[in-house]
Each structure stands twice: as C-alpha cells, then as structure tokens.
Fold this sequence. Notes:
The chain has a 6-stranded antiparallel sheet with strand order 1-6-2-3-4-5. The chain contains 3 helices and 6 strands; from the N terminus they run αααββββββ. Helix content is 20%, strand content 25%. Helix 2 packs across helix 3 (50-60). The model has no long low-confidence stretch (mean pLDDT 93). By secondary structure, it is an alpha+beta fold. The protein is globular, with a radius of gyration of 14 Å. The longest helix has 12 residues, at 6-17. The chain has helices at residues 6-17, 29-36, 50-60; strands spanning 79-81, 89-92, 110-117, 121-129, 132-139, 143-148. The chain has one domain (6-148): endopeptidase fold (from Nostoc punctiforme) (Alpha-Beta Complex).
Amino acid sequence: MVREPDWLRAAKVDEALGILEIAGSEHHPRILEYHAHTNLHASTDEVPWCSSAVCTWMQESGYVSTRSARARSWLRWGMGLLTPALGCVVVIQRGGGNQPGPKDSTATGHVGLLTGWSDTQIEILGGNQSNRVCTKSYPIGRLLGYRWPDHLPSA
C-alpha cells in the first residue's frame, strides 16, 4: 500500500470540510488563511487561490512552498518528475487555446495535487476548482509538469 504524503492528507481534510468560496461580501476564513501563506496576502476569496492552497498544505506539513500565488511558480519548486506519483504537485495550463509551455512562468496556470491518472486524464485535488477544494479530472494534454519536494520537512 502506498502511503499518502502529509500534504495530500491535509488537502483531503479541507476537501472533506467542504471549503468553498462565499458569495458576496463575506469571504471564507480558510481561503483567507491560504492567501496568508503567500507573498500576495489577498484579502478576498475571489482572488485565484489554487497556489495559495497548495502553499498552505505544504507549509502546514512542514515543507517549504513557493510562497507565491502564481500557479506556475510551482514549475521551479522541488524537483521535476518524469512520471506521476500519488500526491505530487501537478501544474496544468489554465483554460483552452494556444498557451505557452512550462518555461513561461508568468502565464496563467492551475496547480493542485495528483490523486489519479490514466493515459488521457489526470485527477487533481486542488483549491479554486469550481470555487471549492475538490477533486476534478483534466485532459493530460494540459499537463505542464509534475513536482516533488527536494528536501525533508523542517523540524
């Protein structure tokens, strides 16, 4: 049996809690907490928060994160993996159309944690997916990279 990484278990807790954006002028306190783990420190749950969530799960599990609210910042974090691994950080293109490849870290993207894969799909547990923490499938053609920590957690 494969042991799930601590950060994936943390994400699954938030998924089970049903973390989602609050419509209107209120903002979900957990999403604001996600933002506090980045250098952006956004103050609403309408600001894209997928990277903020991954930063939080990593930091709460004792790992260094990118501390960036940009999804593609994760393409320079840790070490790249040639094949998928349960719980690895996965970065994909956001939306459709002709988008730059993984070398362009300033373009839009989406980041989450890998929970499953096939030849055609990747399953990602992430934040800001349908305005909530949930698991969704995406076409493998949108994949930009798989990443894994290159260090042990801090004591």
